[in-house]
Design goal:
four-stranded antiparallel sheet; Rossmann fold; binds magnesium ion; about 30% helix; about 325 residues; alpha/beta; 10 helices; six-stranded mixed sheet; single chain; about 30% strand; binds adenosine-5'-diphosphate; Alpha-Beta Plaits
Length: about 325
């Protein structure tokens, strides 16, 4: 199957204010069809707000969002014909069984406006059966008797089974056990192989690392970084652990170096650029061992890209 190439998601100056809280601040995004985009950020950073705006559930305070060139707020129904959505907090009808829920969601075709659309692609029933099996979903159970993880699975199966051109997934694996997380990853890889676009919000770095072509990092409503994983790693290229045989030295702050004390005799340096200035600074001190390795995305993420000069904490 070949999709028309073009832009799946575009936002321009997209902002949302809730009272005194600026939940999203001038977001500019451009996601191509066929991309798997990881939307990473800690709790409260604005991931769900962004998704609500993409889906036309809330009105932007400023700016706009488009899905496949259609305005997500003004033309909600048209914009969502090609989209399936998994929300972070699964809201489902408690008295339906899992199977009844899938049938009902299939008829709605995950239309977030609640308006069934006859022009939408039909649910792929054979694929849905395979998903039910892979996710080990018990179709006869009432939704009210399902754990959060199992409700999440109902939502995931319903969304994936549509084979929608754009999957918008808001922390879809919270509540899934590691085995089901693997099933989820395979499904996303399969969707990508078919040319579907995936917008995946997450605070789980390994998930994003494993699945995404590009990653955007959100902090306090602002997109602070964006790029491929290789590009982001470049921001903090290496971690150097240094053990001293003598007393810990007092090092002057170095541009692009983040230093932390990790033990009585050890300092850890995270380097954004060349190791030269650090090596120069260490010369003349009683260094016992130096170990260097590539910095993980997790470390990059936790350090908030702080590359300003820092004093070595003592
Ligand atoms: N409906 C709302 N009313 C008021 N404040 C909200 C609402 N939704 C989100 N917020 C606030 O907006 C910020 C971003 O929230 P959210 O988008 O849910 O973050 P995330 O999904 O990344 O955890 C938070 O400070 C949150 O408290
Ligand atoms: Mg959220």
């Amino acid at each position: 199957m070949v999709w028309r190439m073009g832009t799946a998601i575009r936002t321009h100056g997209l902002s949302k204010r809730y009272g005194a809280t600026l939940a999203l601040d001038s977001l500019d995004l451009e996601i191509e069809q066929g991309e798997v985009y990881g939307y990473l950020g800690p709790n409260g950073s604005g991931k769900t707000t962004t998704i609500r705006l993409l889906l036309g559930l809330h009105r932007p305070s400023a700016g706009r969002a488009e899905l496949f060139g259609v305005d997500a707020w003004r033309d909600r129904v048209a914009a969502h014909r090609r989209v399936a959505y998994v929300s972070a907090e699964p809201f489902l009808w408690p008295s339906l069984t899992a199977g009844e829920t899938l049938d009902f969601l299939g008829k709605l075709r995950a239309s977030t406006s609640g308006v069934p659309s006859i022009q939408s692609p039909r649910v792929d029933l054979a694929y849905r059966d395979r998903l039910i099996e892979q996710f080990e979903l018990d179709e006869r159970k009432k939704v009210r008797a399902l754990s959060k993880g199992n409700r999440q699975k109902v939502q995931l199966v319903a969304a994936l089974a549509t084979r929608a051109e754009l999957l918008v997934l808001d922390e879809p694996t919270s509540g899934l056990d590691p085995l089901m997380e693997m099933v989820f990853r395979e499904c996303v890889q399969e969707a990508k192989a078919r040319g579907q676009t995936v917008f995946l919000s997450s605070h789980i770095l390994s998930e994003v690392e494993a699945l995404c072509d590009r990653v955007g990092i959100l902090r306090d409503g602002r997109l602070v970084e964006q790029g491929t994983l290789a590009e982001l790693r470049h921001l903090s290229a290496q971690t150097v652990d240094v053990t001293f045989s003598g007393p810990l030295p007092e090092l002057a702050p170095l541009q692009g170096v983040h230093a932390t004390r990790t033990g009585p005799q050890t300092l850890r340096f995270e380097l954004a650029g060349s190791a030269g200035p650090l090596i120069d600074a260490l010369a003349g001190h009683q260094v016992a061992t130096i170990r260097s390795r590539e910095t993980s995305l997790e470390e990059i993420f936790l350090h908030q890209y702080d590359t300003s000069p820092e004093h070595v904490p003592s």
